[in-house]
Every structure is written in C-alpha cells, then in structure tokens.
Amino acid sequence: MSNRDKNWDDYIYPRIDDLIKKDFYLEAFYLCSATIEHTLQSAIQIQEKWIKNVINHSGLKFRNTDFEKLSNFTLGRLISYFSRYCDNVQLISELNKFNSLRIKFVHKLLDFSLKELNEEAKINFEIYWKLVAKLSRYMIWINCKQIRSIKRKMRRGKGARYCF
C-alpha cells in the first residue's frame, strides 16, 4: 500500500465522511477532486505498465510517463491523457462533467453564493462515487489483462522473470 492509499484510508475518506455528515458538500468535493486525480494517475500508470509489458518483446519502445510529470497534470489534462488508453466514451464524458463542476466550484467560487454551490455539490455528489466505482472497475479490468498476459507468457516458458 502506497502512502497515498494509506492517506486515503486513514485521513481523506474519514474526512470526506465527516464533511458530508456536517453538510459541507462543497468542501468534501475539493477532497474528492484530489482522489479522482490520484485514481486517474494510478489508472494511467497501470495501463502504461501493461502496454510496456505487451510490446517490449516486439522490438518497439514504449516509455511510461514519469510519475512526477503525471502528478503535475491538471485534472483536465489527466482526463485527456487517460482518454488515450480508455475507449469508454461515457466514462470520459462523466469525468469531463466532474471536471466542469470542479472548475466551477474552485475557479468560479466567488461568482456564486456558497450556499448555492454547496447545494449544487450535494446534488452532484453521486457523480463522484460513480466515477470512483467505474475507475476502480477499469483498473481491475487492466489488472486482469496483465494477469492473463503473464499467464500466457508463463505457459510459453517466458514467464520465469515474473515469478517472485
């Protein structure tokens, strides 16, 4: 478990839960934005790792995106980057909708009343949970592809380097 995952389990999720219980949906939404960014970064890394493992033996070169570079991407840029690997148009559309809300809540904060924004965050909060579920399923799917690929290599006698 990475420090980021531990922080999610120990601090972020309980904090989001507390904020929601106190009807601070806008503040909770800010934390949720960071977790969507983290999830997208992880999904990109998993996908790139799988691609690299699949094509490396073919003589083609593939370099994973440096995590430092990924961690500096805006949410919009992460979504755009993620869309290179994910062909689920509906998921990309939902991520863009979430990002539009985030932009409104963060960058247009002073253009609206906090009460109005908090109510909009409350109404749209389900989008966040659905995105987390869909992104988690996507990462499970990629991991299953990796496992199948490794199993095929092991059956062909090329998998010794994958054994621990």
SSE blueprint:
Layout: H1 3-21, H2 25-55, H3 67-71, H4 75-82, H5 89-107, H6 114-155
Short characterization:
This is HEPN domain-containing protein. The chain is mainly alpha-helical.
Verbal overview:
By secondary structure, this protein is an all-alpha fold. Helix content is about 75%, strand content about 0%. It has helices at about 5-20, 25-55, 65-70, 75-80, 90-105, 115-155. The two termini are about 20 Å apart. This is HEPN domain-containing protein.
Keywords:
164 residues, mainly alpha, 6 helices, 0% strand, HEPN domain-containing protein
Q: Structural class from helices and strands?
A: mainly alpha
Tally of separate domains: 1
Q: How many helices?
A: 6
- What portion of residues belong to β-strands? under 5%
Helix content: over 70%
The averaged pLDDT comes out at 88
Shape: elongated
Order of helices and strands: HHHHHH
Radius of gyration: 19 Å
Q: Pick out the low-confidence regions.
A: none
The end-to-end distance, rounded to whole angstroms, is 18 Å
What is the total tally of β strands?
A: 0
User: What does the largest sheet look like?
Assistant: none
